[in-house]
From TrEMBL:
Its EC number is 2.3.1.180. The keyword Acyltransferase applies. GO terms for molecular function: 3-oxoacyl-[acyl-carrier-protein] synthase activity; beta-ketoacyl-acyl-carrier-protein synthase III activity. This is 3-oxoacyl-[acyl-carrier-protein] synthase 3 protein 1. The lineage of its organism: Bacteria, Bacillati, Actinomycetota, Actinomycetes, Mycobacteriales. Transmembrane segments: none annotated. Residues 245-335 form the Beta-ketoacyl-[acyl-carrier-protein] synthase III C-terminal domain. Keywords: Acyltransferase, Transferase. It comes from Mycobacterium simulans. GO terms for biological process: fatty acid biosynthetic process; secondary metabolite biosynthetic process. Residues 115-193 form the Beta-ketoacyl-[acyl-carrier-protein] synthase III N-terminal domain.
Amino acid sequence: MSQPTVSLTDVSTYLPGEPIGADYYAQFAESDDLRDNVMFRSPKFRHHVAPDESSIDMIERAAHGLIERHGHDVIEGADILISHTQVPDMAFYGQGAGIAHRLGMRPSWVLDLHNGGCAAFVLALNVARQLMVAGQGHTALIAIAQNAAGQFFDQPGVRRKAQSAVPGDGAAVGLVTLSDQSPVLDIECRTYGEYAGEMTLAFNPPRKWWQAGPGEGSIGFTESKITKVLARGNRQVPEVALSVCDRIGLHSKDIDLLVTNQPNRVFLRNWREALELPPERHRDTFDECGNLFGAGIPINLDRAISDGQVKSGAVVMMAAFAHAGDFAGAAAVRWGGRA
């Protein structure tokens, strides 16, 4: 008996506020040992979540496109809701239940994923697909909110650092259905537990993240850590993409559109070169949006669909790695067009 076909039917997105130029961070920049590192070369623009804008607000606004195209009933009737928020609005629980309430949903499954990081959309698609194939639902929503740029990285003490100028905020909601409209061809997810914990928060003087104390926490980057992360990211993203290509019988150079997370320009260039793809077949909004973390893949995919960059019948490869390299994933979809 053949398994039912699961499709990534549609995606809609949201970018908060007006674009913020590179000069915004230039005015705060101080001497930083990592200022000239390729990891932190600033995009031209990025967006910041508003001070009073929650991750649930962002997801609700991102869902508008799906509601307009598919109707409230499809969204409200989804059986599965999978969410990922870069900076949870509340420390002790995720946003899944709040998102469900805001969208009028009563899903059987509500899952908040935190370990997927920049590859969260691929991980969520894999979880949704497995649940649906197992008969646990016919429709799923994947909700991703990246809200660290205007909150975490724009703290007065952090925005003076080179790392602060790269991230941007945004949100996306993907619609996954039991149909053959835009079938998911294959997914590869890999966990590299030996690298877990290498992404750290740094405080001066040292303390746990929840303890009160002077100064804000920032990501604990060092030259040595950056070198390791660059090496892992350069290797992991092509590896998971090539694994998917091998199983679906596709040479990497025949991928119609590559959509990745976008930490910096160096990764973007190295990934497409490793997969033998020209720039015009790798969606890149880094200079418009900065590093969108987990929202990068769905926002870039939405842009590619809206711009006509991806045509009906095209094979889209989504690939990303997370944190300091503790997770990576890739998913191939044969795009069938927006209904």
